[in-house]
Each structure stands twice: as structure tokens, then as C-alpha cells.
Write the C-alpha cells for this entry.
Amino acid sequence: MKHMNSEVKEERTSNKKRIDLFLVPIVLIAAFLNLFKIWTDEYANAYYTAAVKSMLQSFHNFFYASFDPGGYVTIDKPPVVFWIQTISAKIFGFHGWSVILPQALAGIGSVLLLYVLIKRTFGVWAGRFAALAMALTPIVPAVSRTNNIDSMLVFTLLLATWMLFRAVRTVKFGWVLAAFAMIGVAFNMKMLQAYMVLPAFYVFYVVATKITWKKKIAFLTTATALMLAVSVSWAVVVDSTSADKRPYMGSSQTNSVLELAFGYNGINRLTGNTSVTGSSHKQPAQTEQQTASSETKQNSNSSADSSQSSNQRKSSFSQKMQAPGGGNQNGMFNTGNPGPFRLFQKGLSDQISWLLPFVIFSIVGLFAGVKFKGPYTAKQKESLFWLAWLLPVAVFFSIAGFFHQYYLIMLAPPIAAFAGAGAVALWSMYKQHNDWKSWLLPGGILTTAALQVYIMSPYVSSIGVAPIAGVGALGVILALVLAIRKQSKNSLTNYLGAAAMVVLLAMPAYWAMTPIIYGGNSMLPSAGPDSSSGMGGPPSTATNSKQSGFNGMQPPGSSSGNSSSNNQMQPPSGSSNSGQMQMPGGSSNNSQMPNSFSSKSSSSKRKSGGMNAEVNQKLLNYLTKNNTGEKYLFATTDSTSAAPYIIKTGKPVMAMGGFSGSDPILTVSKLKAMIKKGEVKYFYLSGMGKGGQSDVITWIKENSKEIPSSKWQSTSSSAQQGPSGNGTLYEITLK
């Protein structure tokens, strides 16, 4: 202990004199992976970008995180991250990169925070390894390069961890309050997901703090109360505000933030009951069958060309649901099938699990010889913290009914922490011991290399055999040589150990670069040669990102001359969204899986949010010209159709059913009142997003005048694909 304390003091004194030169390239790597070419993603995730556009227009929209400038409905998440994005857009101007920038900086900040957290107790080399592992964890830069919430969430939780560690070192109650209050702030980023770290916070504080049990209980109780107060502060304000004075809470069924937090964005994630209509989420095969049935019905009277287009759409959807290597066996959104080995399945393992075997060996080494009753060293206490973060989160993702691949960023900090701390610990055991602990390093290297070969094997057609064979061969050779040369103290052994770490980080580094190399997906971010699709499976062959649009569907009013290009999925008319695909933000959506976005079109900005691709200029011109003072430019079923027009014009567009089209926001009587007040008169309806608003849509069709498509519909063969497919424009004027 004395030696460890003196070492820490020396490092702290040294840090005051100079910057850690080894940390500089690690930070530069993180900056490159998180920032390079974010300016090519012009509108990012259009659902959230539209909200930022709306939030820039008034404090009312800003406070409630309104999706549309008219304050009709909110987005499906709390506002804190979007407040930060809006401030960034206010400072730097409204661009895709300006709403992505806060998350990219948060990704870099997480690398630095992990370095600080690990270095103090485990040593400077452990901090360096941990920071590098965090930077190269593929899902970390993949998420940080988008305007999704998770990168900022992880940074906030790491900041809370730093406060907690400081509270333990200084034994100051103020830092305990600050740490738990920060978790409350994180709750206002992504609700119950922030609470996944609470077991680690409670266990660590109880074990590591040298105060009486009475004080521990009192401090933790008070800190928890503060956390809960901060967590629900915004929700209480919103829910206590009269419904007619604020937007509807998007993706909730009772117009309540608390219901959204603890139901749809909470427990339902575990159970898989994520349908906003309340019915259970269907399996991909059911959805595909439903889609195929719908398309057959919709195209029964179509020409042979249309029939061929439908078949191609179904084939495209089926392909997107397949995991690498084929087969529709990888769960919804390529998140595998629940079970104890889910994190080693295709679709998840290549996002987060590259170093998991090494982490397991590290945990064994770090806890070797620990007695249940203690006493515990500082290293053991902090190892317990990271273990209490890792295990509950890993269990959740192993059994959860619904999540997206990019949620796995929650596992990145503890995995990176154990990789860094474990590398140093296992190396020390390898050099100093002659018992079973000396075999942990070679064993960790061998099993980790084997897993990486398994992870890469489905991508042999994309990356070739060489890297797979190289990692496997080098892993085996280095592990065997280290085993043979055990306890050798010459410099060659040191180089072999360093080479092994390089080999184990080589392919995660490549995977982390794939959003830059192949293009990313701002709606469903993931890493890998198929990163542009956001769905797993074979890489896209698209060469122009403009072809992809928003979810790969056509914009209101666009009619492509080549019907086979409409690789879209059509849900059954009037069906609920319980079997529909879940899109980012977590809401159930009846839109298809996103098409790919290739970075090969480097000469133009990548429209992965699909703004320009979805806006039909002829439709926009018609609506603008014929607007006679109505508040809303037009109304449509869901946010997918509305988002590009909000981004393009900054004018209110009503998503009648919220994000997915199934929020019970509007009734026929409410709509009549709005029309009579002159708030809206144009309605764009397609086969998408009916859900729970079928009565409203039926009434619109029965009481409206259909606008001839020649007045507003584009017939250009170069029309880009966008959100809602071909539909019908209606006009209603009530006296």
C-alpha cells in the first residue's frame, strides 16, 4: 500500500510538470474517429435534427423539446442532450455537424475521463491502455458521430463516476450529492438507461468509504433522494402543465413524461413490449410476412413492372434482416437472440465484445486472492465498481426484449477499464508468479484472438481472409511464445507482450474506422463493413449516398420513374404498429430499415438524415403558394414524412400521430376545431403510420377534396427516395 501511495503521489507530481506524451496520440486517435468527416453528414438523424430546428425558434419549443415548430408533439426523449445540440446550432449555425459536434466531443471526453479514472489507482500504463481501448471500441465512435443521445449519456455517467471516486477519496458528502445528481441529469437524457450504473455506485460507496454504517446509509439515502428529484424535475413540470399549453409528449399513450420514462422507455425495454399501442413487439419474420402480405394486396392490380418492384422490395427487406453470413436468426435489428451468450452472437459481438475474453481473464486476475470480508485494496475496490457496472448491464443486454446495437456503448467503459487495468495486472502476474496466475496473460491473449477470428469470419467476403488468418495466427503464436518464455526477464519478452496488445487492438481499430471508410448511419449507428446500413448483413453496394434517403422510402409527392428503386417496406393499411420496425429514438415505426449511405460520394455531403432526398420541391411549392395563413404547412401521419420539410423550411408540419404515427394525439373533434380555426387544411396521407388514428384518417378522406397529383407530384425519374412512399394530398375547408 505504501509503495502504491508513493507511486500515485509521484505520478500526480509528474503530471503537474508535463503532459503525458503517450496520451496525446490516443486523444488524437479518438478525435479522428469521432470528428473526421462529420461535416459530410448534412442532416444526421432527421427526427432529432428537425427538433433542433424547431427548438431554435422559441423558448417554448426549446424547453419542451418540440419536434415541430408549431409545438404539436415532442420527440420521444427528455430534452437535455437536445438543449446542448440546440445551443451548439445557435453558436455554429444550423448544420448536421453542429448537432453532431456535442456527441463527438463527449466521445473524446469519455476517453480522457477513463484515463484519469484508471490511472490514479492502477497506474499510468493501465490508464493509457484503458483510454486506447475506449477510443477503439467500435460502437463508441459509431454513436459519437451521430446526434443520438448515447455518447453524451456515457460521458455524463463517467463524470458522475469521477465525482463518486473523489467523494470516496476526500470523504466529502458534497461530492456524493454531486455524483448522484449527475445521474439525475443523465436520466433527463435517456431516462431509465441512466440508472443501469446504480448498482456500481451503491456497492462501491458502501465498500470503499471509511465512515460508519449510519453515515453511509444517511448519505446514500439523501443522495438518492436528490437524484430522484433531479430525475423527475422536468417531467413533473411538464406533466403538471395543462395539456393545451404544451406539446403532446411524443410516443406516450397518456401524454405523460413519467409514463414514457418508466413504461415505454423503461420496463418495456426489458420485456420487449415496445409497441406504443400496447401490444407485444413481433418478431422479424412476422413483420416480414405482414409486409409481404400488405405489398401483395396493394399491388394486386398493378402492372407486371409494379409486381416486380414489389418482389424486389420484399427481397431487399429480407436481406436487410439477415445477419452476416445469411439467415434470419439474429433477432430484431440484428441484436441476436436472448441468452447467456448473446453478446458473442453476430451483430453484437463486433460492436462491443472484441476484448471480452481478455476482460474475463483480467477480472480473475484482479480478484485473485480476495476474501469476502476484506480488507480490500484500492485496486480491488475500484475493480468491484467496474464489475458492478459491467455485470448488470451485460445481463440486461443478454435478456432484453428490445434495444438497438448502439445502446451497447453502455458496456464500453467497464470493458475498457478492465482491459487497461487487467493488461498491467496480468503482465505483472506473468512476470512475477510461477503459479496459475502466470498463465492468465497467455490464456487471455489466446482466447481473445480466437473470439476475434469468430467475429470476423462472417465478413470474409468484405475484408478478405488475410486479416482473419493474421489475427488468429499471431494470437496463437504470441500466446504460445509467452507461455514458453514464462518468467523470462529480457527485453524480447516485453516486446512480445506489447505486440500481443497491438494484435488484439488491430481489428477493433479497423472496425472503429468503418463508419469513416464505408459510411455511417445516423439513425441506427453501428460499426463494421456494413456500417452504412445500420442493420448488419453484407455491405451495401450503393455508391451515392443520395440514393438512400430517409429509411429508404420515397418522399411525399415523388414518383420515381424506375419503380424497382423503391426498396421500401409497406405495412398493412390500417394496421397497428405493434409489428413494425423500431427506429432510433426507440419508438415503434412502420418505416423500413434504412438503406445504406456510402461515403464513396465524397464530392457531396452525405444525406443520411435524408433531408434533401425526401423534400419534393414541387409539393413544397404548391403548399407554400396555396397557404392562406394556416399555422401548419400541411399535416401528415408521422414524423418521418414531416421531418425533412421542417428542416428545409423551418415551418410547422403536423405529425398527427407523432413519431411512429400511432400516438393517440388527435381526435376527429379536435381536428375539426383546428380546421375551423384555419390552422391546417392540407393533408398528405400514404399507407404509412395509421396505427391508432384510423378514425381521423377515415374522416379526412371522407370530408376532403383530393388534389390532382399533376399539381404537386414529381414525376422525374431522378426523384430521390425518402420517407413516406407515394400518397395522396387532400384539402379540407370547413365553414
Remarks:
- The CA atoms of residues 319 and 537 lie 7 Å apart.
- The longest strand covers residues 682-685.
- The beta strands are 581-582, 588-589, 635-636, 654-655, 682-685, 705-706, 728-731.
